[in-house]
Amino acid sequence: MEACMKKAFALSMKEGSRWGLTQEELCSFTWSFRFRDLGPGGWFPNTIFKRYFHPDSYVDTRPVTHFWTEARMWRLFLGEDDGDQYVQINEYPPMSISRQLDWSWTLESMWVFMASDHKAGPNPGRDALCEPSIDSDS
């Protein structure tokens, strides 16, 4: 029993020190999104929106807001110069990825901040998008 507990502890510590975010993780979380405070008249720094990444490289929000009306595509990549990991939505500045002490994830750029929101639960659209399609003709 003690050996199992030690192994479980060692595995959890290894997981906690992992810095790379996988595509599956990116698509499984609900993300809290906000604009950074850009001074007087800034872009809604206190308003938090929910964002959802999907395996087909789309990002959406629920409920749909007038701030987010066009299709948004994302990509996960490694920086050429530093080897760090980034997420980029459309042509906006890439967001650096970091792991927090509570093992949550953050994505941030000069304009925005996003955090994995474990209290909000998983991405509500993930299961439907990850299921294989069934061809009714076969």
Features of the shown structure:
138 residues, alpha+beta, Lipocalin, 3 helices, 8 strands
Q: Are there runs of 5+ residues with pLDDT below 50, and where?
A: 128-138
Quick one: overall form? Answer: globular
CATH class: Mainly Beta
**How many separate domains make up the residues?**
1
| Main beta-sheet annotation | 8 strands, antiparallel, barrel
CATH-defined topology: Lipocalin
Placed side by side, the strands forming the largest sheet appear as: 1-2-3-4-5-6-7-8
Mean pLDDT score, rounded?
Answer: 78
Radius of gyration: 18 Å
The percentage of residues in β strands lies in 25-35%
Multimer state: single chain
Derived structural class:
alpha+beta
Describe what you observe in this structure:
This protein has 138 residues and is of the alpha+beta class. The protein has one domain (20-130): Lipocalin (Beta Barrel). The protein has three helices and eight strands; from the N terminus they run ααββββββββα. It has helices at 2-17, 23-28, 126-130; strands at residues 31-35, 49-53, 58-60, 72-78, 85-89, 95-99, 105-108, 112-116. The protein has an eight-stranded antiparallel barrel. A hairpin with a 3-residue loop joins strand 7 and strand 8. 13% of the residues are buried.
Layout of secondary structure:
Elements: H1 2-17, H2 23-28, E1 31-35, E2 49-53, E3 58-60, E4 72-78, E5 85-89, E6 95-99, E7 105-108, E8 112-116, H3 126-130
Antiparallel strand pairs: 1-2, 1-8, 2-3, 3-4, 4-5, 5-6, 6-7, 7-8
